[in-house]
Structures are given as C-alpha cells and as structure tokens.
UniProtKB/TrEMBL annotation:
Native organism: Agrobacterium cavarae
InterPro entries: Ala_racemase, Ala_racemase/Decarboxylase_C, Ala_racemase_C, Ala_racemase_N, Ala_racemase_pyridoxalP-BS, PLP-binding_barrel
Name of the protein in its database record: Alanine racemase
Purpose of the protein: Catalyzes the interconversion of L-alanine and D-alanine. May also act on other amino acids.
Transferase found in the keyword field: no
Length: 388
C-alpha cells in the first residue's frame, strides 16, 4: 500500500521535532492581558510569529480575545489576512512603501505611518477613494529607528490638513531598553511619549512591547504590543521569566562512535580530544538555526545530563561529547534536547552570543513541527504536524 507523505510523517523518524505549545501561548497572552486590565493587548506576529507560524499562532490568539495584530511587512499582512477573521485589525510596522496603498486599503490593512511622506501618501489614497482610511502614527521618542521626529510632529500639529482622510487608530512608539527596567532611556522615552500624545487628545496610545508591560502601569496605555513574551521569551533581562515556555526542540542522534585521544573532531579540526571520547552526531546544524557560534560552547541535554558540543557546528549536523552518559544510552534515532526543561531559549542564546529573538526566528522549516492546541480545539487535533 502506498503511504502518503502525511502518513509517513506521522510514523516518526524525523531528524528533529519542534514542538509549539499553543496552550502555553494562549496562557501567556492571558497573563500579559491580565497585567493591564484597562488596556487592550495586541500581538506582534511579525517574522511568521517569531518563526512559529503566524497562520496558526494568530487564530489561537484571536480565540483568546486578541483583535489587534502587528506584522513588519505588507506581504506578511496580506498572508495573515487569509488566516484571520475579518474583524481583526492588522498593522504593518514598517509602514507604507510606495505602491502599497491600494493593497493596504483594499484589504483593510492599517499602515503604521513613520514619516510625513507616508502621511501624505495615505492621505492622497484616502482622497482617491473618497473615504477615510485608518492608520497608526509612529513617533520617535528616542530610539532613532522609525517614526516622526519631534520637529515633524510639530509640523503635523501646525498643519492638521496633512491628516485629511486619515483616521488615527493609535499613536505609537517603541522602547529601546524595555528589558532593562533601570535603564534611564525608559523614563526619558515615557516623558517624550506623554508630551507628544497629549497633543493628540482622544487618540489611543500604544507603547509597551513585552518588556514595557513589566515596567508598570505608566507604560500600559490603551493598547499593548507584546511579541517575545507571548512565545515564552523573557520580557526582562534581570527578573526571572514569568512566561510559560512555548517552544521545545529535540534532535535525533544519527551516529555514535568512540574515538581515541588525539582525534580531530569536526571541520577545521578545531577540537582535538585529550582522552578516549564518546561522541554522538545529531541531525541539525546552522542551516536549522543553531548558530555556528555554538561551536565548542553550547550543549544539548539528555535526561538532564549536559552533553557539550564538540568542535564546529556543521550545516546539517552537530557532534556532541556524550562521555558523561552510560555506554549504550543512545541508539540511532534517540532524541536529545536542544530547547526544553534543561535549556531555555535564553540559555542557548547566551551560549551562542545572541538573544532569544534571534534563536527563535531562525529555527526554520526543516524540523517536523508539532502543534499542541489549547483544550477547546483538542478534540479536533491534539498534535498536528504542520508541514503535512
Ligand atoms: C518587534 C516589535 C515589538 C514586539 O517586541 P517584543 O520585545 O518582542 O515584545 C513591538 N513593537 C515594535 C515596534 C516592534 O518592532
């Protein structure tokens, strides 16, 4: 009997499993929302929901009550539109590129206007269509990345006709150091935000990313804008992580061997063993989002035992020193933990010299994905491999 690809995948045998716990995602959304009962909580689902699959993540958040979604690019907004109820508001953080006006207005996508040029472009589109179009207005409160500079805000206030045909859904800005609660930039940005938004009475204010939500009620305003904390990442660099882990990653062993002292391991012969060493090669590498900077620095885990990465990370594989495990522990196909109870996203990111955001967004499409759905949908499908 011919097996479909779907049936074959259901049999197991993948080289790596990325498990995405949508019940934890939902709980994280509700936890963040509960921090500010008077604010609305949106979800930042840019970069394919930080790599976890925006088409799957966004509807779960919608069911949890989320109605505002932020993506970075217009194309992300266009594809999200197909997977989310029509009453969901979709904002594009990088704003309006020339040529996007028609698709934005036709599909009810809300651009974040980051410059006076974009304001003019959107106002012109409203005039062409003869209707009012919604937009968010971003101001730069001190990060110098996106948004209107203070002098541009003044020009806008002095010339209200510039906003003709535009309905401001919110006025927003982004915090540069929200994960460092004691950083002076937070209060400085808050101060600029307050002074600016006072001049737009009645327009909802949207300021806090994940870290901002934990800076206190001053930062909450009308609409919050978390990303990483939804996906289990730590909102603060100094406090314990209150979020539930969403992602776990295990990778299969494809070969084990014992090598004598003085053996080279991996590309560049960067490691030379000093004693007889037991090694296991696992089936994921830098093409699977495990940075090459983990070479001889990071580790995998098995039953709580740390298995150091031995030598360079290759494109499709990594060799581990498994001398700490009893002989015969691994058989072909045994799974080691890369992200899970023994190794958080933050821990592996630190070993790689990067941040949890970068690890998460690079995990890529080569792992077999397992989505664990919240209770309500469990009857239909408890675990589903997404790539089927
Ligand atoms: C990415 C992003 C967010 C989400 O930030 P997190 O730190 O992941 O919560 C919010 N706002 C803007 C403008 C962003 O670019």
């Amino acid at each position: 009997m011919d097996m479909t690809l779907q049936q074959q995948k259901a049999q197991g045998g993948a080289s790596g499993y990325l498990t995405i716990d949508l019940a934890a995602l939902r709980d994280n959304y509700l936890t963040l929302a509960a921090k500010a009962p008077h604010a609305l909580t949106s979800a930042v689902v840019k970069a394919d929901a930080y790599g976890l699959g925006a088409d799957i993540v966004a509807p779960v958040l919608y069911d949890a009550g989320c109605r505002h979604f932020f993506v970075a690019h217009i194309d992300e907004a266009l594809s999200l539109r197909l997977h989310i109820a029509p009453d969901a508001k979709i904002f594009v953080l990088n704003g309006l590129q020339p040529g996007n006006e028609t698709s934005c207005s036709a599909l009810n996508i809300i651009p974040v206007l980051n410059s006076l040029e974009q304001v003019a472009q959107w106002s012109a589109q409203a005039a062409v269509l003869g209707k009012t179009l919604p937009a968010a207005l971003q101001i730069d409160t001190g990060m110098s990345r996106l948004g209107l500079a203070p002098y541009e805000v003044e020009r806008l206030l002095a010339t209200p006709a510039m906003l003709k045909g535009i309905d401001l859904a919110c006025i927003m800005s982004h915090l540069a150091c929200a994960d460092e609660p004691d950083h002076e930039a937070n209060a400085l940005q808050l101060n600029v935000m307050r002074k600016t938004t006072e001049q737009f009475p009645g327009v909802p204010v949207c300021f806090a990313n994940s870290g901002g939500i934990f800076l206190g009620t001053d930062y909450h305003n009308a609409l919050m804008r978390p990303g990483i904390a939804l996906y289990g990442g730590a909102p603060s660099a100094v406090h314990p992580n209150p979020m539930k882990p969403v992602v776990s990653l295990s990778v299969a062993v494809v070969q084990t061997r014992t090598v004598p002292a003085e053996s080279f391991v991996g590309y560049g012969a960067s490691l030379r063993t000093t004693a007889e060493t037991r090694l296991a090669t696992i089936a994921a590498g830098y093409a699977d989002g495990l940075p090459r900077s983990l070479s001889s620095r990071g580790a995998a885990y098995f039953n709580g035992v740390r298995l150091p990465i031995a030598g360079r990370v290759s494109m499709d594989s990594i060799t581990l020193d498994i001398s700490a495990l009893p002989e015969g522990t691994f058989t072909h196909g045994s799974l080691v933990e890369i992200i899970g109870p023994n190794q958080t996203l933050e821990a592996i990111a630190e070993d790689a010299g990067t941040i949890a955001y970068e690890i998460l967004t690079r995990l890529g499409q080569r792992y077999r994905r397992r989505y664990i759905y919240p209770e309500k949908q469990a009857a239909a499908s408890s675990t589903i491999a997404r790539n089927l």
